[in-house]
Design goal:
Largest sheet: none
Oligomer: single chain
Helix content: 55-70%
Order of helices and strands: H
Shape: elongated
Structural class: mainly alpha
Number of helices: 1
Distance between the termini: 155 Å
Radius of gyration: 56 Å
Length: 137
Amino acid sequence: MNANSDREYIDNKVGDVRTAVDDLRVAMTERFTAVHARFDAISAKFESTDTKIESAVEAAKAGIIKWIVGVLFAMIAMFIAMMGLMVNLLSQQPSPVAPAPAISTPAVIIQLTPQGVTVLPAAPPSVPPAAAPRGAP
């Protein structure tokens, strides 16, 4: 083979490869640009979500602090009221209590009937005669 023709052949092949690589580089640049744009959109969405979450957390934190301070004031007020009540109750002189009367247990009385004596029961209570049913002759 001729050296010039080999050289031209190789130069043509290298030129074709370079053209293919340049085309690939342009296509990949376009694809990467599209991917970067999608990532930027997703990043913006994440930042807006992050901002919403941060504002919700701040609002919850403010509410919790408000309740803690309110409970603290209520506990202090209850403590002061209880201490005032204790001091008031302890400073009063107890009135002397009269001793309770002694409770004696009553004696048990068993009453037996005398032997040979018959005891009649009490007279039955008087019951009015039953009314005749209606419509009876």
